[in-house]
Automatic annotation (TrEMBL):
<comment type="similarity">
    <text>Belongs to the MinE family.</text>
</comment>
<protein>
    <recommendedName>
        <fullName>Cell division topological specificity factor</fullName>
    </recommendedName>
</protein>
<comment type="function">
    <text>Prevents the cell division inhibition by proteins MinC and MinD at internal division sites while permitting inhibition at polar sites. This ensures cell division at the proper site by restricting the formation of a division septum at the midpoint of the long axis of the cell.</text>
</comment>
<keyword id="KW-0132">Cell division</keyword>
<dbReference type="GO" id="GO:0051301">
    <property type="term" value="P:cell division"/>
</dbReference>
<dbReference type="InterPro" id="IPR005527">
    <property type="entry name" value="MinE"/>
</dbReference>
<dbReference type="InterPro" id="IPR036707">
    <property type="entry name" value="MinE_sf"/>
</dbReference>
<dbReference type="GO" id="GO:0042802">
    <property type="term" value="F:identical protein binding"/>
</dbReference>
<dbReference type="GO" id="GO:0032955">
    <property type="term" value="P:regulation of division septum assembly"/>
</dbReference>
<dbReference type="Pfam" id="PF03776">
    <property type="entry name" value="MinE"/>
</dbReference>
<keyword id="KW-0131">Cell cycle</keyword>
Amino acid sequence: MGLFDFLLAKKQTAAVAKDRLRIIVAHERAGRGGPEYLPMLQRELLEVIRKYVNVDVEAVKVDVVKEGEHDVLDISVALPDRPSPA
């Protein structure tokens, strides 16, 4: 690996990081125009899930995703490794 190869690799890494940042910014902008009920839906889902498993507030993500002509409700729940004691 020559000196120029090393410098070129950094530029490629910077380009990848820039592309990732664009994706994040686009996702954040898209989330602002979401339905008004999403925060309430997220809170209620968290309450129901907490009846069975102790999860953090950040563990439940609710989002609306466009798939072609349809809006799809995307719900993601990160469960703990071990269940909480009953």
